[in-house]
């Protein structure tokens, strides 16, 4: 094991120990473009500016949600309560290429034509300002335009999905 401050070689494995310590809140990202709806569970998301307020979500290039988001002008980001593992399993365990996930979801049209899930802890819709290639994921920097809240309670975190079939953006 490397000492504090000492670099460790190893290519892709260099930051594995660091990443293993992270436990981010999980969110659901929904995208709508050309009449097609998509959504997936995402673990790579964060506020990225205070003034002006900005938020970034990262979607894998091989996902259905990414393919729809490329043509979208807005995205919606939803936080899940810890007891919403079933919703996480639907959007983090099934591919939008093979099943219509939205036929089993309660949702409404939101700002910019986004799909807002109605039973989440909180949500916001944002205009896509930038797309940034980060390797196997693309970051979407969002300018929030509206938000809402729903369920109270602790949020679903990455550790809540370990040992289950729930995985971020499998679609």
TrEMBL record:
UniProt keyword list: Oxidoreductase
UniProt keyword annotation of rRNA processing present: no
Name listed for the protein in its UniProt record: Flavin oxidoreductase
MF annotations from Gene Ontology: FMN binding; riboflavin reductase (NADPH) activity
InterPro entries in the cross-refs: Flavin_Rdtase-like_dom (IPR002563), NADH-dep_flavin_reductase (IPR050268), Split_barrel_FMN-bd (IPR012349)
Segments forming domain Flavin reductase like: 26-164
Domain of life (superkingdom): Bacteria
Organism of origin: Streptomyces pluripotens
Pfam families linked: Flavin_Reduct
């Amino acid at each position: 094991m490397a000492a504090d401050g000492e670099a460790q070689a190893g290519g892709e494995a260099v930051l594995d120990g660091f990443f293993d310590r992270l436990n981010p809140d999980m969110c659901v990202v929904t995208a709508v473009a050309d009449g097609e709806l998509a959504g997936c569970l995402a673990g790579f998301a964060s506020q990225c500016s205070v003034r002006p307020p900005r938020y970034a979500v990262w979607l894998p290039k091989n996902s259905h949600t990414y393919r729809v988001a490329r043509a979208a002008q807005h995205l919606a980001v939803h936080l899940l309560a810890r007891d919403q593992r079933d919703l996480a399993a639907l959007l983090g365990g099934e591919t939008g290429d093979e099943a219509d996930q939205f036929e089993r979801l309660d949702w409404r049209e939101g700002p910019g034509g986004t799909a807002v899930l109605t039973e989440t802890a909180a949500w916001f819709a944002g205009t896509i300002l930038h797309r940034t290639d980060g390797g196997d994921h693309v970051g979407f920097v969002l300018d929030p335009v509206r938000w809402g809240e729903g369920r109270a309670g602790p949020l679903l975190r990455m550790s809540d999905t370990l040992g289950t079939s729930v995985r971020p953006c499998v679609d």
